[in-house]
Amino acid sequence: MTTKKHLQVALVSxxxxxxxxxxxxxxxxxxxxxxxGAAVTVVAGIPADQRQLVQQGQYLASAGDCIACHTAKGGxxxxxxxxxxxxxxxxxxxxxxPDKDTGIGNYTLEDxxxxxxxGIAKNGVTLYPAMPYVSYAKVKPSDxxxxxxxxxxxxxxxxxxxxxxxxxxxxxxxxxxxxxRMMYAPPVVTDELSASNDPVLRGKYLVEGLAHCSACHTxxxxxxxxxxxxxxxxxxxxxxVIDGYLAKSLRGDANDGLGSWSExxxxxxxxxxxxxxxxxxxxxxxxxxxxxxxxxxxxxxxIARYLKTLAPVAAGxxxxxxxxxxxxxxxxxxxxxxxxxxxxxxxxxCHRTTGNGYGGTFPKLAxxxxxxxxxxxSLIHLVLLGGQMPSTRTAPTHYGMPGFDDRLTDRDVxxxxxxxxxxxxxxxxAVSAEQVAKVRRAVGAAGQPxxxxxx
Length: 455
What we know:
Layout lengths: L3 H13 L34 H13 L2 H5 L12 E4 L2 E4 L16 H10 L14 H4 L4 H13 L21 H10 L14 H10 L5 H4 L22 E3 L2 E3 L15 H10 L10 H8 L6 H11 L17 H8 L5 H9 L1 H4 L25 H9 L1 E2 L11 E2 L8 H11 L12 H10 L13
Antiparallel strand pairs: 1-2, 3-4, 5-6
């Protein structure tokens, strides 16, 4: 008899291909906000009884950020072809336009539901879990119906053939995925999941379901399933490394979670991409730009309110207190270590010697929950390759940070980050040159510069 343990071992190689970036997004089943950058012409002659559903589905598709994975750079909306990297090859997103030959034009509502919430394509093949159907299992059928109406009537057909995954045999075989799905995909919900005016319950529904926040913000086990799909322990939304960044903890920890954030600040970040002390970057910046900025204030508030109910991973964590000793040392020139000097030469103009940055423009480093994460992956990535804030309706200026991969050595990056993570009241572990070298290779940054021995 095959045991669960044996199946887990057999699935590891095939499941690696499913550890793709999935984004952080939200949904609403009432509002009808247009989709900036993703809106498409509604097909003429839409049946009158479908018009409201199409409008509702458009909001859901935007809030769920469907366009992010299902549109290749320069391609037609939802026509697929976006390459999603995995350690053993690329998976390409599929065409989900209503084209009858290459898209989902021949899908019935039942076919659509099976793919979306159960991970089973029309031909019976199990989808790679880069498609977050384990989260979508919690989307109500009434919302699935609205999404189906939008994709059938609100999206222009685009005849574009799907690409086969660039994964060599035997890792490309799909049969192990069906066992993975049976073990780790939860049962789908029904419309008996009653609507509630409680914003916390509304936020929970959005975060766990179409939002699929846990796809990025929850760590994964060896067989790549999320360690938790709901708030039943410390793993859920406790942070995970994906696409070369650390998707930070969204739990209540004061130093590296959302414990020190107010509901208003969470809403502000999701709506504008920045706050007085922080900014969205990497994949999150794209999600804000393409998705969350278009959500209703009511849904953003519900999400924030629910996130604030999540207990911290580490109970009893004390709030950080500002310490000005590093600022004084930088101003007086008494800080002569490589980290301090590298900061003065490359960082202080924007982030200031006080570490307080400029609110809404250059993020604060002092007592930042991003700076104080135990895992420095995101910080190393940003220093090496830089980053950009999203441009949004409420904050249109597109501020950016340059990359320093061709300017700073691994030792320089490690020293400046160690300095930042131990100054102005920050208390985070030191960063090593070996950690920087690993991230440099993983994100494809330029090789470290060569220096003369007396530099």
